[in-house]
UniProtKB/TrEMBL annotation:
Function: Associates with the EF-Tu.GDP complex and induces the exchange of GDP to GTP. It remains bound to the aminoacyl-tRNA.EF-Tu.GTP complex up to the GTP hydrolysis stage on the ribosome.
Lineage: Bacteria, Bacillati, Bacillota, Negativicutes, Selenomonadales
Organism per entry: Selenomonas caprae
HAMAP family to which the protein is assigned, alphabetical: EF_Ts
Record protein name field: Elongation factor Ts
One term under GO cellular component: cytoplasm
A Pfam family per the record: EF_TS
Record-stated family: Belongs to the EF-Ts family.
Entry keywords, A to Z: Cytoplasm, Elongation factor, Protein biosynthesis
Gene (UniProt): tsf
Domain Translation elongation factor EFTs/EF1B dimerisation: 72-270
PROSITE patterns for the chain: EF_TS_1
């Protein structure tokens, strides 16, 4: 596979490694981006990548929590441009749908699209918005929690990241702190038991190869891996993360007697491929 400058640039942005190291890594794995990231990590050149999606689409993540904080929802609605995302009609639509989810608690996306707001199907409201705003609008995903404890939400950067968290207890301030923590630190799980097994094995394999590259004796490699896995857990498990507002505390310390039972973190456009626009070429074409 030909290693293009664009591939090298993408790998450099994802890992912070040097241009030549990135080119070497891509060449070694025949252009496979994920394998190239592992290659650099194994060589000790790149830090662990925290996946946040390859390309961001536009739109907004919105949230709504009931007055008694017992039910809450977070939803992602996409559009084509940032300009449309700032449209008042688009903002009103996201607010209306997030509130509707809390009021109706649909089972899934199909149920949400087929439910009605003021006599109109949600899917029809999306179609109408597409026609009036002039861009494709899509209702991508949502999460809804109902609990006897407390639901809290946090929206970052006007809808670029949205978090919904369910707790067994606690006040509004605690809920907000935990939701902000999740937005900032992007945990993978609440505790060690929730870490994806495949992700854990992949991390162990990368760490073993790192230790081998460092020339460590075989008899101590496994001990080194276990030590580094404990550090990995502190990065990806919410309860073990350092509190972003006070580095002397972990989230478990902050929670006290309360527990987090579930959370959802949506990053706008995460995992969506977005066409790269060549505006100079577009203008030149229109002038012909």
């Amino acid at each position: 596979m030909a290693i293009t400058a664009a591939l090298v640039k993408e790998l450099r942005e994802k890992t912070g490694a040097g241009m030549m190291d990135c080119k070497k890594a891509l060449t070694a794995v025949d252009g496979d981006m994920e394998k190239a990231i592992d290659f650099l990590r194994e060589k000790g050149i790149a830090k662990a990548e925290k996946k946040a999606g390859r390309v961001a689409a536009e739109g907004a993540v919105a949230a709504y929590v009931s007055e008694d904080a017992k039910v809450g929802a977070v939803v992602e609605i996409n559009c084509e441009t940032d300009f449309a995302a700032g449209n008042e009609q688009f903002k009103a639509l996201t607010a209306k749908i997030s509130k509707h989810i809390v009021e109706t608690k649909p089972a899934d996306l199909d149920a949400l699209n087929n439910s009605e707001i003021e006599g109109k199907k949600v899917s029809d409201l999306i179609t109408e918005a597409t026609a009036t705003i002039g861009e494709k609008i899509s209702l991508r995903r949502f999460a809804c929690y109902e609990t006897e404890g407390r639901v809290a939400s946090y929206i970052h950067m006007g809808g670029k990241i949205g978090v919904l968290v369910e707790l067994t207890a606690g006040d509004e301030a605690l809920g907000k702190d935990i939701a902000m923590q999740i937005a900032a630190a992007a945990p993978q799980a609440i505790d060690r038991a929730g870490v994806d097994a495949a992700s854990l094995e992949h991390e162990k394999e990368v760490l073993r190869k790192q230790a081998e590259e460092e020339g460590k004796p075989a008899n101590i490699i496994e001990r080194m891996v276990e030590g580094r896995i404990n550090k990995f857990y502190k990065e990806v498990c919410l309860n073990e993360q350092v509190f972003v507002k006070d580095s002397e505390k972990t989230i478990k310390d902050v929670l006290g007697d309360a527990k987090v039972t579930a959370f959802t973190r949506f990053q706008l456009g995460e995992g969506i491929e977005k066409k790269e626009e060549n505006f100079a070429a577009e203008v030149a074409a229109q002038m012909k």
